[in-house]
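Blackboard transcription, Thursday session:
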Amino acid sequence: MQEVTTEKKEFTPNIVAFCCNWCSYAGADLAGSSRLTYPANVKIIRVPCSCRVNPMFILKAFQQGADGVILCGCHPGDCHYVTGNYYTRRRMSLLFSFLSYMGIEKERTRVEWVSAAEGARFSAVMNDFVKTVTELGENKRLTDLRIKEGK
Amino acid sequence: MKDVEMKMLERAKALLESGEVARVIGWKKGDFCFDPAPASFETVEELDNFVYDYFCGANLSKYLIQMSKKEGKTAVFLKPCDTYSFNQLVKEHRIKRENVYVIAVECMAKLDIEKIKAKGISMVESVEVVGKEVKVTSAYGVETLYKPDVVLTKCATCTKTHQVKDEEIILHERPARDVDRFEEVAKLEAMTADERFAFWREQLSKCIRCNACRNVCPACSCVKCVFDNPASGIAAKANDDKFEEQLFHVIRAFHVAGRCTDCGECSRVCPQNIPLHLLNRKFIKDIDNLYGEYQAGETDEGKTPLTSYTEGDAEPNDVMNGEAK
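(Written on the board underneath:)
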């Protein structure tokens, strides 16, 4: 018979990271080839440009059980498509400020600029973000209740 | 208001008779004194049902998307707040400006029947407004109410003026006012995250997903709406989990950010009385703070805050930590 464990499992958050193809995704690659570690619970989704990220993507990630969402793109001025991340910057400033207005912890959302040469920065950013979200605990406010029940 | 209505009717008749316009968009009488509905009048006879009173709060701009594409010119009566929506729609190439004849009409703040009913008055038969007094005649007698208590939410903080007109019917001067439309937003911002979450959960869980806010919104004019997609994640229409409503309202508010003229129609039509204008006003307040004062619909050209940028824009993380200006 299966033993019933009363021990509390340690909380490991689900993190979704949207990374732009040209800078941050390459930054993640560099982090890997430089043997720098970042937590395995960061799920990277590659997007052609940070401005490809529709606000719906972020909310859907939360709805499907993410505990934190981070958006990484090229540094402003370095966008492969010249101006994409300038639009991202405005959109995400407004969206994340709005989510905070709706009462969602502002620590769960973040925008970071990581270039292809910044493997170390990528690793540091992810470690820091995961630490913040782990301290914050499970995302209860945004998850679809049916998703959690099925877990 | 009666004199304004007479003048409007006179103009509508003249325009239709001369053949200058093919139709006039205004309001027609409803079953009760408090439910006039937007309508299109194509003949002088139809104008018998024409009405303009203190319950004509509906924004007529959105109807022009369809009407301005029909043959012949369309005349429309626009209140100050409606003209902003009109400009915004012209800017987005949704209305053919050359096919529309805009008659600017005075507003003098419209009444909210729900607020009158909330005062315990039912079976309203007629309403008379004198200065700041509203005399409501119901089956149970006559009661006098203080007008600012029973005006539509959108009218309570309105300082708008006509932005576009081909001619005007303004018989009374509107007194200048000094109001802050962001007062309630600031109050919410000052709360803790938990309090805000509790507030919005209580409000948004009332949502029955009737889509009235979307359908009435002049900024929500997409031919194919993202929410009509059954896979959008908000289409279950069951209010059995708390997140669907929030997702719907967050995305809807975001989609109209920078284009919302704060016409307040969403809150007016909500059957559950959710203060939806507070969502849009948060975006307007943030845009004003971060990217400079901007009023959508002031002109029918130029870029909106979310379709433009500057190199020195605030960083999202600074905005979140309250470090941006």
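Lecturer's comment: Chain B has a mean pLDDT of 89.
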